[in-house]
Amino acid sequence: MSSPFDPHLENNNLATNLQADPLDNYLSDPEFHNWKWQIANRITSFKEIKKLITLTPEEKDGFRKSKGRLAMAITPYFFSLIDKTDPNCPIRKQAIPRIDELTVSGSEMLDPCGEDSHTPVPGLVHRYPDRALLLVTDSCAMYCRYCTRNRIVGEERPPMSIKNFDKAYKYIMKNNSIRDILISGGDPLMLTTDHLEQYISKLSKIPHLEMIRIGTRVPATLPMRINDKLVTMLKKYHPVYMSIHFSHPREITPEVAEACAKLSDAGIPLGSQTVLLNGINNDLATMTELFKKLLTIRVRPYYMYQCDPALGTSHFRTPVKQGIDIIDGLRGHTTGYAIPTFVIDAPGGGGKIPVGPENVVRTEPGKIVLKNYQGKIYEYSE
Fold it and tell me: Is position 128 annotated as part of the catalytic site?
């Protein structure tokens, strides 16, 4: 396989440049819209970021004391969305380490979704009967501080080797029950288009595979990566679906809308996955705005996740009832297309379990008693 783009090939010089020019000037710089420039100029160190933003004591301690927990990397584009005057900016809280990451509760786990125990060959997770997860890289454009795979992402190691991909390919070939492959990581869109195509083209030749999905955050954190070459390649392998991670309505920008339009116009159905996060999106107004905005850019809200108990993420987790109340508040007050399924990924590998408001009041012989979004009671005869 050809090598992916290596973010270490160019010097990271953003912090130096920004001392001479305000960040806003980069928004009109042609290089700003080059995805490889964005990767090469990610903000990755305390030395760089302290020149760009006044850090809070909690953020300073996050850098000084949590080394090795999870790498920091923020694209210039995503950094430009941060309100530098607000320490509680929802973009900022997702991207910049805080000392809270060192607090580990007793319920937190290294591998909260039990993926390692369902890994028959390196890089392939086979937890559900008819689908499997292929982890092709541990790199992301921006490292979310609440990442469920913080045990493996952020090392910036080479992508899945030819040897390991062949093992995964042979496993899928031998298991006729697998009809659906989700390519994820890290983020598979960190690879060059040619490199990603080598995975997809080979998988597409497996007779019993009916669909390929791509799990990514790149359209939100690096929208310029969604270029014509990538879209043209993906069109060749339909049906291809894409699950995109969005967390806050501030992430829905004109650049993101353009990226999603290219994907939708290419016939790629788009769904969103949103993690419920304390202090970022755990209120009805924020989630309503996010889900409505997603529909305007042709992204269907698909899942809303309870935050997984990964190590160092307790400050992001909310009571489950908050998620249930958000779904309850959406139902009947907006289109059903804007209402995702609220799920808990059962700790230890039990899979996604839907949870939500209780609308079935009781069942009786010949009828079921229901409660609608207004709290009114109705009977349905069976």
Answer: yes
307 tagged catalytic:
no
Cα–Cα distance measured from residue 217 to residue 226, given in angstroms and rounded to the nearest whole number: 11
Torsion angles phi and psi, residue 354, rounded to 5: -70, 140
On the question of pLDDT at 7 being above 90, the answer is no
State residue 28's pLDDT score.
65
User: Does the active-site annotation cover 147?
Assistant: yes
What is the pTM (predicted TM-score) of this model? Answer: 0.90
Going by DSSP bridges, is the β-strand pair 367-371/377-381 parallel, antiparallel, or unpaired? antiparallel
**Residues ≥6 apart with Cβ < 8 Å to 185:** 135, 136, 137, 138, 139, 140, 153, 215
Q: Is 151 a catalytic residue?
A: no
Residues 6+ apart with CB under 8 A from 312: 66, 69, 70, 100, 101, 102, 103, 104, 108, 150
Q: Is 149 annotated as catalytic? A: yes
Residues 247, 280 contacting (CB under 8 angstroms): yes
Give dist(CA 286, CA 377) in Å, integer: 29
**In angstroms, rounded to a whole number, what is the distance separating the alpha carbons of residues 243 and 268?**
10
Q: Count CB atoms within 10 A of the CB of residue 362.
A: 8
Whether pLDDT at 22 is above 70: no
The reply to whether 217 belongs to the active site is: no
3-state DSSP assignment of residue 341? strand
Ranges of each domain in the chain: 14-100, 116-354
The reported pLDDT for the residue numbered 26 is 57
Catalytic residue among 89, 140, 260, 307: 140
Taking residues 3-30, report their average pLDDT: 47
Q: Is the peptide bond before 22 cis (omega within 30 degrees of 0)?
A: no
Give the model confidence (pLDDT) of 310-368 as tens digits: 988 999 999 999 999 999 999 989 999 999 999 999 888 888 999 988 888 889 999 99
The active-site residue out of 113, 144, 260, 307 is 144
Task: Report DSSP state, residue 83.
Answer: -
CATH number for the domain whose boundaries are 116-354: 3.20.20.70
Q: Mean pLDDT for the chain?
A: 90
Active site residue 194: no
